[in-house]
Amino acid sequence: MRVDLSGITVRFGPVTAVDDVSLGIEPGEIHAVLGENGAGKSTLMNALFGLVRPESGTISVDGKERQWTSPQDAIGAGLGMVHQHFMLQDSMSVLENIVLCSEPANSLGFISFAEARRHLDERAQGHGIALPLDRQVGALSVGEKQVVEILKLLYRDARVLILDEPTSVLTPQEKDRLFAVLRSFRAEGRAIVLITHKLDEVMEIADHVSVMRGGRLISSEPLSATSKDRIAREIIGGELPPTRERKKRPLGDVVLSAENLEIAGRGFTVGPLSFSVRAGEIVGIAGVSGNGQADLVEALVGLKRPLAGTVSLLDQRIEQQDIEARRHIGMSYIPEDRQRTGLALGATASENANAGRDDRAAFARGPFLNRGAMADFARALIDRFRIRVAGPSAAADTMSGGNKQKLVVGRELARNTPLVIAENPTWGVDIGAIDFIYGELMRMRDEGHAVLLISTELDEILALSDRILVMYEGRIAGEVSGEEADRDQIGSLMTSRAADALAEVA
Amino acid sequence: MKTLRGILSGEALSWAGAVAAILAVFLVLMLMVGAPIIEALQGFFSGAFGGRRYAYLMTTLSRTTLIAGMAISVMLSFRAGLFNIGGEGQLVVGGLVAALVGVLLPGPPLFVLTASILAAMVAGGLWALLAGVLQLYVGVPLLVGSLLLNYPARYLASYMVAHPYRDVQSGMIQSHLVPMETWLPYFPGTRLDIGILFVGVAAAFAIVYSYTTVHGYHSRLNGLSPDFARAVGLPVKKLTLQTLAMSGAIAGLVGAVAVFGIHHRYIDGMLVQPLYAWTGIIAVLLVNMVPWAVPLSGFFFAAVQTGAAGMERAASVPKEIAFIMQAVIILFVASRVSGALTASSTRRETDNV
Amino acid sequence: MFELIFDPSFAESIPRFVTPILLAALGGALCERAGVFNIGLEGFILTGAFFAVLGSYYTGSPWIGALTAILAGIMLGLVFAEFNLRRGGNPIVVSIAINILAAGLTTYLLRAIFDVIGAFTDPNIVPFRPIHIPLVESIPFLGRVLSGQPVLFYIAVAAVPAIHYFLARHRLGLRIRAAGENPAALVAGGVSPRIVQLWSLIGCGALCGLAGAQLSIANVSLFVENMSAGRGWIAVVAVLLTRGRPWPLFLIAIIFGAVDSLSFRVQGLGLAQQFTDMMPYVATLLVLVALSWWRKRQTI
Predict the structure, then answer these.
(1) How many other C-beta atoms are found inside a 10 Å radius of the C-beta of residue A28?
(2) pLDDT attached to residue B158
(3) What is the pLDDT of residues C99-121, one digit of tens each?
(4) From A315, B69, B201, C11, which residue has the greatest number of CB atoms within 10 Å?
(5) In chain C, pLDDT over 90 holds for what percent of residues?
(6) What are the tens digits of pLDDT across the range B245-299?
(7) Pick from A75, A99, A103: which is nearest to C190 by CB?
(8) Touching A: which chains, 3+ CB pairs < 8 A?
(9) Chain A: residue nearest C179 by CA?
């Protein structure tokens, strides 16, 4: 099945997310769509899949022009998509998830699960994919959940498979298995669209490469006709920022230390964990998401009480203190979710910038707010962190993702505390903001602050960390020094059960 | 700005649609009882704003006192993201305590009045705090806990004026009258008591508090995003309890004003049946919790109620039409402005394009 | 007190109190599972109670009364859907509005149609009669509980496994669960969560309508202003406590119904009516407190 997009344009209000893009997807081919966050890749694919209605342009399948009114039409035509955020029901079984929305039912609407099982067995055969169908999806690892998503596509016999950033949640080993499965799909004549921002993976598996930037298609050609450097330049529209020099600096005192910390996690107990972070170093915590990192962060920050063990900040025991007290002692926190936890989107930039300040006298007169001082502070932050926003009184939800994140990072770093906890600090922001945030975190390190970086992006961990701890199933699976770290070594520490679900394929 | 104009005209159109739909419901209800429309409308406006020497307008203002008072109480909670729908219980407890202290406490009138009002505020505040404690330390959601506490308050008050403190001679389920010297005086030449001034002060306090104080700012951040408030280290528990206490105290004050200004005793059901607390809630929602507009919204709903009473006198339209109109108005209006109401109840969105 | 609890006539009265709470809570459960935060059950029940009387009065058939109540409940469900699902109004606001609407509409119609204030009773209102089940009836003690109840009790009890099975095995049931847990997955699968939620509101309206019918044309045969008297809120609590799972809901409904029934019985004991009226709510609060404590102990 061949799919052609021609002249696709998608607008969200005044923003043009996809601008006149045309490309063709051939059967038996792995087609990589590359670009930064916000380049329009996901929106383009959502349009192809019927989730977003394009303002103009056409989609044709095997030469025939088609209109989707909902994803149901696209699915019916043989398209399938694995979304970046899994579309799964944790409380349901694997089988229930697979049949959802395509249930084999009798005339009264009752579902025949036996028929579903038979049907699935037929389709999945030969790809070496196996999962216990009665397991509850919530109990699966992230990698296994992705297998469920792929089984959903097989169950519907999708001829064109769209995968949105499929490797961002996988260990390197799981990634290899996934790629083997994709190759086996390709051999069957299915078309695969791989949305990604990882260049190495494209070089490894793709047949055809399309690059998007700022909503436009920059290039679309066979991999053999281009080169890694050229693609890289096309993605960012210029030269890559130079890699940062890491200054050697003597280690300071211990700022944060955890001893035998145990936390109630989702489905398992996290810990016991023991580690410390010293002044002047960035300690990275790597691992596939869902291995207890979120619980660890919550326990360190004070969002959750640990079950056992101690946490000390600047030699004070803090595991029973509330967040306010911990921040006062010397902690700042850049949360993963800027939409809910990092910012109050309904408030102004200034109100967001001034939240959580310890120096009450600087923005209040007695019980009253000093709005002028608050605006001045916000303006200083906006200047220093180069945040693009209409002004201190603009609502936070008018800002772009990258600028929101800079506001969060700016607010927290401006507190100048001995300890900074950063949780996926560059998730979903553009390359300019990423570079800037990396620079700020490095500056904090160089100035002698202790930085704890929790990230699921291995590249981020490798770029910033002096020491790397790898978490797996709630424990620290190993420690690697930043200088000696290599991908495969950390990858094997991150290994999880999902690798077994995607058995080796010839 | 073509798009802005497009949005504005779209807005205007949908507002016009809402108004048309509300009027249509109104018409259907009128036709159902075969009421003469013109007389009914005249009755409505004179009932809300007219009367001899504006007597009905004074009734509307008197009712505004209670509805706007409850609206202010509710607003403080809602802005802080606290779904305190137990205003009724806090109001009843305040009214009961005011009446009992007024009847039982000896002393000079001004002292009795002051003590009664303060006691009512404390009682209302404590009743609200109880719901807060249940949420924070026991884990009963505020929405449910505050609502369920309405009923014990209602029945406890009913019991008190039916048994131990009943004015038996009156034959009704009600307390004795509070001493006449403690009654709130009327504005000269009217039948409107000065209770509205108390609520005016409460409104001024609430507006100043919401816009200009650190506490109000922090509460609002909690209302916009509880996760955010927690993560930046705001003292969420303290904010919750203090806000609820303020809310409840204002509800208690309203109860005291109803006793000393209007009924001069506690009568069983006097604060429950007219749905003051619920009307207060929808008055807040009508204006999307914007503080300065809340008293006006309270006046609006008071006028709908007294206007309906006027319609009943003029055209025999059952006055319960007021509640139907209130509900229909809030359905149409709230669905247009409810975006900001609970950041906490909306699902996570991504900001990626 | 103890004689009272083991008094067969007490046990016999329990189903009458369980039925409305159970039916309304099952309706609420459909919404809860579909991700519709419908806490306006009180208004749904009250409306059902009124229209059951209306239907029965004009046709002389309790069945048509129940059907009228179901239709009225469904209409209210559609109103909820219009303002919450289609226009995007906050569900709590819509629920509160529905409650006020029901209170206003029933009293208004009471005067507009029957020209009475407060209560309407008339010999033309035909209630459901108790159904005597031959063999069951002769079981000692239990027989008087399980037999001799109005038909809606049996319908309510049968609805528990039916809804359980429906949610587990039916296409719409599966989608209702998905709409409540991760509606984005339905969107991605080409199914509109709103349509699924609309169906859950229709089901909820029908069940709540029946709950109202039980109050007005099975337990008694009259309509009184505000006769739902907080039972809708108790049903809401039951739904929230059990997260809408039918079997636990059944258990909670029995507990709440028994307390409700008990409070009715102890009025004869010289306890002031106000305290017996208070009992269901205090009991509900206590159950909430106990469960929260128990859950906390579980997690630590």
Answers:
(1) 13
(2) 94
(3) 999 999 999 999 999 989 889 99
(4) B69
(5) 62
(6) 999 999 999 999 999 999 999 999 999 988 999 999 999 998 989 999 999 999 9
(7) A75
(8) B, C
(9) A89
Could you tell me which CATH number the domain at C18-132+147-228 has?
Answer: 1.10.3470.10
Q: Do C170 and A71 touch (CB under 8 A)?
A: no
User: Which of B130, B143, B144, B326 best tests the C interface by mutation, with the highest count of C CBs <10 A?
Assistant: B144
Domain boundaries, chain C: 18-132+147-228
User: Which residue is it, tokens 């159902």?
Assistant: B32
| pLDDT value, residue B345 | 35
CA distances from A355 to A342, A349, A363, A373, C220 (A): 10, 10, 10, 13, 58
Q: Is C163 on the interface with A (CB under 8 A)?
A: no
Q: Which residues contact C27 (CB under 8 A, 6 or more apart)?
A: C41, C44, C73, C203, C204, C205, C206, C207, C208, C211, C235
pLDDT digits (tens, 9 = 90+) for C171-196: 999 999 999 999 999 998 889 999 99
In tens, the pLDDT along B95-136 reads 999 999 999 999 999 999 999 999 999 999 999 999 999 999
Instruction: Using alpha carbons, select from A439, A425, A431 the residue that is nearest to residue A38.
Output: A431
CB contact under 8 A, B155 and C103: no
Residues of A in contact with C192 (CB under 8 A): 70
pLDDT(B60) > 90: yes
How far apart are alpha carbons B175 and B155 in whole angstroms? 14
Q: CA-CA distance, C169 to A111, in Å (whole number)?
A: 6
CA C98 from centre of chain: 15
Q: Is C190 on the interface with A (CB under 8 A)?
A: yes
The mean per-residue pLDDT over the stretch C250-276 comes to 84
A324 and B352 within 8 Å at the Cβ level: the answer is no
The residue that leads in pLDDT, B140 or A245, is: B140
Instruction: Determine the average pLDDT of the residues in C62-76.
Output: 96
Domains of chain A: 3-242 (3.40.50.300), 254-499 (3.40.50.300)
Using a CB cutoff of 8 Å and minimum separation of 24, what contacts does A71-77 make?
Answer: A71/C187, A71/C188, A71/C189, A71/C190, A72/A101, A72/C189, A72/C190, A72/C191, A73/C190, A74/A48, A74/A49, A74/A50, A74/C190, A75/A102, A75/A156, A75/A158, A75/C189, A75/C190
In terms of C-beta density within 10 A (0-12 exposed, 13-18 middle, 19 or more buried), how is residue B223 classed? buried
Distance from CA of B255 to the nearest CA of A (A): 28
Instruction: Retrieve residue B60's tokens.
Output: 């509307």
CA–CA distances in Å: residue B32 to residues A134, B241, B325, C112: 58, 48, 15, 7
Name the residue of chain C whose CA is nearest to A102's CA.
Answer: C189
Distance from CA of A24 to the nearest CA of C (A): 23
How far is CA A363 from each of CA A358, A376, A382, A428, C218, rounded to the nearest angstrom? 10, 10, 17, 32, 65
Mutation target vs C (from A48, A52, A75, A87; most C CBs, 10 A cutoff): A87
The separation between CA B279 and the C-alpha centre of its own chain, rounded to angstroms, equals: 6
Is some CB atom of chain B closer than 8 A to the CB atom of C78?
no
Our CA-based measurement puts residue C82 at a distance from the nearest CA of chain B, in whole angstroms, of 10
pLDDT digits (tens, 9 = 90+) for A216-251: 999 999 998 988 888 888 887 766 566 667 777 788
Which stretches within C39-170 are classed as H helix? 41-59, 62-80, 91-113, 134-137, 142-146, 151-169
Is C295 an 8 Å CB contact of chain B?
yes
pLDDT of A243 reads 64
Positions in chain A short of pLDDT 50: 496-506
Q: In this complex, do B351 and A12 lie within 8 Å of one another by their Cβ atoms? A: no
Chain A to chain C Cβ contacts (< 8 Å): 74
Q: Model confidence over C144-168: pLDDT tens digits? A: 778 888 899 999 999 999 999 999 9
